[in-house]
Amino acid sequence: MNLKGRHFLKLLDFTPEEILYLVDLADELKDKKKKGIPTLHHTGKNIALIFEKTSTRTRCSFEVAANDLGMHSTFLDPSASQIGKKESIADTARVLGRIYDGIEYRGFDQSIVDDLAKYAGVPVWNGLTNQFHPTQVLADIMTIREKFGYLKGIKMTYMGDARYNMGNSLMVVCAKMGMHFTACTSREYFPAEDIVARCREIAKETGATITLTEDVDAGTKGADVIYTDVWVSMGEPDEIWAQRIKDLSPYQVTKEVMANAGEKAIFMHCLPAFHDLNTTIGKDIAEKFGITEMEVTDEVFESEQSVVFDEAENRMHTIKAVMDATL
Ligand code: CP
Ligand code: NVA
User: Fold this and answer.
1) If you ran DSSP here, which 8-state letter would residue 303 be given?
2) What angle do CA 97, 101, 105 make, to 5 degrees?
3) Which of 34, 101, 147, 307 has its CA 20 to 30 A from that of 139?
């Protein structure tokens, strides 16, 4: 398997074998990290990290992974660079491509990261766009395989806003890996028809299935993985909170949902999560709408079934694998 020079923009661009190779490599790199075995495979290289939206996990994972591979990284936040304001994406890509060996981008439309990739001349990695979050779902399937020992045949139910980056990316990875994906949410939040159709085509080859349902009982019954994400994503206006709370509250992950899922079911969330009042937004929403938990109850979040911190740790190992494989 040789992924040198490849971009990592979305999992639709990768074969199941390539995806599996990246997860296997992440397992190997994780094992080496735990044993203290150095992995300085890219000493002297430099990477640029462009973040037009905020981040804890993704940024820290890229920085630590770069360091573990022997590389140096430069962090560019929207206020500190010329990107988009004084300099186009194409020009930025051509400049950074002359200076760096690889570029990470987190921001808005997928077309921006696609453009960076078109002009940079070095590997570009998608650290989240409105449409896709591919490094996240790589960590998710790594975590699922650690818990269950296999991927093919796993039943994943995603609850909440399934039209956005996480819903799309999870549906794609399930289709690619022969897993059963269910979007369990209100109809308006089902993933877009074109991507559903594409995933159903892929599913024919891999044995996956794609189900869209508004029925919580049917949609979560016997699931191996219950997954959710915030109801309002970065970059969306504050005004939509009221509507989202109304529309998505029936799809909150509760202990009843977990009890209806499979006996060994796990709870997953890309994080950050609103499960208590220990955040400013959480407090603000509680004052305005009188709710103390949103997409997941604190009880489920803190339960034995919750694997969210394993998932968060695996962000670093999988991002390291992506950079190691493509550089
Ligand atoms: N899950 C995730 O991407 O987290 P950050 O926004 O903190 O990077
Ligand atoms: N859907 C969320 C994912 C955060 C990791 C967002 O885009 O804000």
Assistant:
1) S
2) 70
3) 101
Closest residue by Cα to atom 4, ligand 1, is 57
- pLDDT number for residue 83: 83
What is the pLDDT at residue 135? 98
The CA-CA-CA angle for residues 231, 235, 241, to 5°, reads: 35
pTM: 0.98
Catalytic residue at 133? Answer: yes
Residue 106 Cα to ligand 2 midpoint, Å, equals 11
Q: How far apart are CA 311 and CA 271, in angstroms?
A: 9
The helix or strand, by DSSP H or E, that contains position 51, with its residue range, turns out to be strand 46-51
- How far apart CA 189 and CA 314 sit, in angstroms, is 28
The strand pairing partners of 226, in sequence order, are 157, 267
Task: Indicate whether 210 pLDDT > 80.
Answer: yes
60 catalytic? Reply is no
Q: How far apart are CA 106 and CA 122, in angstroms?
A: 17
Contacts of 41 (CB under 8 A, 6+ apart): 69, 70, 324
- Whose Cα sits closest to atom 2 in ligand 2? 233
